Amino acid sequence: MNTGELVELGQQLRVDSVRAAAAAGSGHPTSSMSAADLMAVLLAHHLRYDFARPAHPGNDRFVLSKGHASPLLYAAYKAAGAIDDEELLTFRKLGSRLEGHPTPQRLPWVETATGSLGQGLPVGVGIALAGKRLDRTGYRVWVLCGDSELAEGSVWEAAEAAGFENLDNLVAIVDVNRLGQRGPTRHGHDLDAYARRFQAFGWHTVEVDGHDVDAVDRAYGEALSTRGQPTAILARTLKGKGVGGVEDREGLHGKPLPDADEAIAELGGPRDLRVRVHEPPAARVLHAVESRSAELPRWDKGEKAATRDAYGKALAALGTARDDVVALDGEVGDSTRAEFFAKEHPDRYVECYIAEQQMVATAVGIAARGWVPYASTFAAFLTRAYDFVRMAAVSGSGINLVGSHAGVAIGQDGPSQMGLEDLAMMRAVHGSTVLYPCDANQTARLVAAMADLDGIRYLRTSRGGSEVIYGPDEEFPIGGSKVLRSSAQDRMTLVAAGVTVPEALAAADALGREGIPVRVIDLYSVKPVDRATLRQAAEETGCLLTVEDHREEGGLGDAVLDAFGDGRPVPRLVRLAVRTMPGSASPEEQLRAAGIDAESITAAGRLLAEEAVVA
Amino acid sequence: MNTGELVELGQQLRVDSVRAAAAAGSGHPTSSMSAADLMAVLLAHHLRYDFARPAHPGNDRFVLSKGHASPLLYAAYKAAGAIDDEELLTFRKLGSRLEGHPTPQRLPWVETATGSLGQGLPVGVGIALAGKRLDRTGYRVWVLCGDSELAEGSVWEAAEAAGFENLDNLVAIVDVNRLGQRGPTRHGHDLDAYARRFQAFGWHTVEVDGHDVDAVDRAYGEALSTRGQPTAILARTLKGKGVGGVEDREGLHGKPLPDADEAIAELGGPRDLRVRVHEPPAARVLHAVESRSAELPRWDKGEKAATRDAYGKALAALGTARDDVVALDGEVGDSTRAEFFAKEHPDRYVECYIAEQQMVATAVGIAARGWVPYASTFAAFLTRAYDFVRMAAVSGSGINLVGSHAGVAIGQDGPSQMGLEDLAMMRAVHGSTVLYPCDANQTARLVAAMADLDGIRYLRTSRGGSEVIYGPDEEFPIGGSKVLRSSAQDRMTLVAAGVTVPEALAAADALGREGIPVRVIDLYSVKPVDRATLRQAAEETGCLLTVEDHREEGGLGDAVLDAFGDGRPVPRLVRLAVRTMPGSASPEEQLRAAGIDAESITAAGRLLAEEAVVA
Question: Which of B149, B356, B421, B503 is catalytic?
Answer without folding.
Answer: B356
